[in-house]
Amino acid sequence: MASSSFGRRLVACLLNVSEARRKDLVETVARAALYNNKGVTREGITVLNIFNDRDYNRSVITIVASIDSIGEAVLSACEKACGLIDMGAHKGVHPCMGAVDLVPFYPLGEEVGVEDCAKEARAVAQGLTERVQGTSAFLFGWADSPLQRGLAQRRKEMGWFKKTPDLQAIRPDMGPQPQKPFGLTGVGAGPYVMNCNVTIDTQDMAMGRSIAAALRESTPGGLPGVQVLALPHEGAVEIACNVESMKGSPTSETTAGEPWPCFSIGGQPYCHVPASLITARVAELAGREGVGVKGTALVGFTPHECRGLAEFALSQRIAEFWKEQGRIRM
């Protein structure tokens, strides 16, 4: 990948908001990252992609900017989302707890470390609870200092996986007791996390949960760095995977002959399981039950794609790049 001077300081935020059925509202949230309240363009910021899922009623907005300007852009988008999305009226099959449900920061450039992103994440969490009275947040990953608890652990602690979370039992890291309409927002930082969803041609949720369990990193023989949920989706079952990047280079024992994408943070190598391997493993497990795979969707980009497209968009001064891209990436 060609590198540029501004590319060396880039950071991505994959902002997860609890709305997808009103696409104009989601685009309004995205534009709040790009323009100030007077409509003036914020320099050096682009929104690469907006991934909407109607069944989940959840959208992921990929915001990229330099470490020096990402915080205000993301905070403005969060503030706008909190003013437009009411968790008291939200319906969707994907677990969620907040109007702004997740705010993860990932370093893309060589001159930005995970610690820099963690500092920005903590500032955004504090800024949100100060600007929007009634909002609350929990921290995860490198932003959760000094414990650095992972997202899955923190979500479990907060009751995120429960069908009806008990807001009164939650102790947020910042802000008051969670309350509707805002709910609870997770803010954190770490090496890039890719989202890969594989749909299997069945409505059998028990089968989906069995496949999800077999894929998880915590299961013997599971895929490293992969966290999985099985969810009903458009008349089928979706195996929804968070694919965490791991420090170090892949070994022949872990790759199973499949090339793993690699990148570096602060000169240290990182790698992640490729989407093709996840799809193949799901196809194998589902195939044993006589069920086929309908398709695979990447929510956004791989780390390499994210940086490459961001460098192009910023060099061409394309703020609303999701329009130029013209399609949801599948």
TrEMBL record:
UniProt-listed InterPro entries: Formiminotransferase_C_sf, Formiminotransferase_N, Formiminotransferase_N_sf, FormiminoTrfase_cat_dom_sf, FTCD
Record's protein name: Formiminotransferase N-terminal subdomain domain-containing protein
Taxonomic lineage of the native organism: Eukaryota, Metazoa, Chordata, Craniata, Vertebrata
Domain Formiminotransferase N-terminal subdomain, first and last residues per copy: 9-191
Domain of life where this protein originates: Eukaryota
SMART domains reported in the protein's UniProt record: FTCD_N
GO molecular function annotation: folic acid binding; transferase activity
Pfam families tied to this protein: FTCD_N (PF07837)
